[in-house]
Amino acid sequence: MMGVEFLPICDVLFNVVSLASYFCDVVFDVIATYTFFKSGHLVWFWLSLVSIALSLIVCQILSGRWMLSEERHKDISKRKLMVLALLHAAGGGMVWRYSLLFAPIQLEHVKREMRNLCVLRMIHGFAESMPLLIIQTYIACMSPASMEEINVISMALSLFNVCWALASFTKNIRSHNVHRLVLTWIGVIFQFMWRLGTITSRVLVLVLYSTVFTYWVFLVVVLHWITMMLWVLSRYATFKSERLTPANKVFLSFFVSYIHIFCYLNLEEQNTKLKIITFYTIMLVENVLLIALWTLGLREEQGGWEGSNRNRIYVAVFTSFFIGIFFMIIYYRFFHVRKLTATLSYSPNEETKSRKLQTSSQGSADDPAVTVFNCALNPALRKKKKLPSRSVPPPPPAGTGAGTPFWKEPLPSEERTAGDGLSYSRTTSVDDIRQKLQEKRDKQLLQLRRIEKDIAAGRMERPNQPLPVNQPIPVKKRQPMVFSSGGGGDSNWRQSMHGGEYGDWRQSMHGGEYGDWRQSM
Q: How close are the terminal C-alpha atoms of the chain, in Å?
């Protein structure tokens, strides 16, 4: 088990931004809801109140269930359990989970906690922030005079919270993939810009359409919702691998298809390039049709949307959409998590091995297998610093002149390296080699003495005698000699080979030593 440690600065900074955005968004949403009540917008007041309450209730229930199911929380005392139950009942479950990451924590629990917070942030973003963003954008379009500064701040925080939840949400939040949950700051920033552009365009289109056709916008939303739900249920293998109950499967498909009304959410491990292109092509066509219908159905009394104001709306809608698509392309091309080759090749078995090898707390805290954020773009591109083979001497003291450069100084006669690898000595290295060779020779002689003792005691048999050293060369391996003289030399050579030494050698092979050797075999 790993020790209790603080998280690295990258993880801490991400948690600070997440907690600050969540807390500020909840506070300003409550204040904005009160402004609706004070301004007489009772319908928007009740809708906002229901959205805030629904988000808080669902997040606290999920956080409490996860707390009771986790092994490390099963042995807590009843008093602490009662305190945590009251904290969740008061709506502080997410704040409590963030506090666990700011305090010293066992590093094997970090990714599980971050996974839980990613899911809770997503629920809060689309159950509370998105409805408040749409409501306040609609009020700003219909009656700009009733908008106050607190409403503008609440809109900005809601948009930021939704985009931040999407930017920090990855497909590796599932139970069997939690160990692969790795993020980078530059990847989160590019994802944030991608979501900021596409969601801004989508919200503006839906709100502008509702300003003219009012309740007909719900028909557009419901049809898109049903289509996305069928698409999710038909293509997602996620629901088959998670062992979900039918109720949980329906709720998950319901929520994921609701998110697909505004943006694309990937939960698959396979390549989804074609699906992303198809989704955003359909969304672009929908946006163009809704803006065209808004333009055709615009009434004459809405003079505020005439002329240059309408052109600004067109520029805002389509510029934000294409800027978001541009950042999406850059993100998938350069900053996607698959670029972290060192992290993606990680497996739980490697994590177990790395835990055994880690001896210092700082080394384990910087391990990308345990922490979530990786400050480097690609750890595989890191190169180990090569230590110099010889340490550079310090500069000469002032007032002594330039002196002799260190590369012209004679080598020392003797120098100890002490195994530090920072200095080199030829004398020492030669002595080390001789010492190792002598140790190896002594070891071999000791083994030979033991073998001779075993043979003398009868515990081992002496190996067979080797063949005589002066064995004749076989015919196939005997190479003929080539002379550079004319034909006479060649004929003499053939004659000597057939009738001279070669014939005597063959005769000796058949009748002499070779025959005796075959009989002995």
A: 66
